[in-house]
Please model this.
Amino acid sequence: MTSIIKMRGAVLANPVLTLNDIPFSRQKCINWLGADSVTISEYGVESINDYQNGQVYPSIDTSARTRVCKQDTENGINVLTFSPENFAVNTINAYRILNPQQFNAKDALSFAMLIKAEASDYTSGYRAIFHIGMNNNAGSNVPMIRLQFTSDTAFGIVARHSSPEETAEQIGINGLNTGYNVLFVELDYVNRRIRTKLNDAPVVTRTAFPGSSGQNVVSASAVVGLAGYLSASGQAGRTTMFSGKVREMSIFSGPLSDAEITSVTDWLQSKKVLLNN
Model:
């Protein structure tokens, strides 16, 4: 579990005890990733750190010493900048999120993100912000979840319920603003629906996962990546990386209530206004 409490204005010795003070669904949080707790070197961001339990999410690339991510500041707020377009081919690897089992056997997985796309060529990639991949019967790694920009102003969701052999759900979200956007995505496996919310627009609900029932399946051998979708070996090519900025991404064991969705997205909206000012 990741909870970068620092981003919420509290830096305490035992942040687990402060979770009830955080202004949204603390108990349901699986990951809390952001720009305020990172390990920096002259090469860029070496790892994104788990502020709650000390786990780190390192860059896979340890030989080229090239980092795809750096910490920047916009209007006094820390952000993570991912920019593969200026790197040579085969020098980039994604940040691999450890322990895929934290995403397994969930009623729903809910994502709340404050992110910005900055790619110039989406036909070559530069788009995936989060990915869970599992191997199908042919040995190809296919997405169980892929959250990606399809342009600077459009976002795509690819999702499967429990098997890489399933036909994927695919949803597009258009009308993103220039700059940072608040995106909420909930993959509700038990209730067979996908809920989305863009900025201050209402929640949109779509039916999904026909023929499936119960909680989702993510195998122990799945690969989970931040800012890139990964091969079976955990490698990400130059054209499968995300190009843009991340303020924060919270992942919950959902489904969230309407009040919880409002709480977390309102918080992100307040930061979005500052970043886009």
Summary: Helices lie at 258-276. The mean pLDDT is 84. The first helix runs from residue 258 to 276. The CA atoms of residues 49 and 55 lie 6 Å apart.
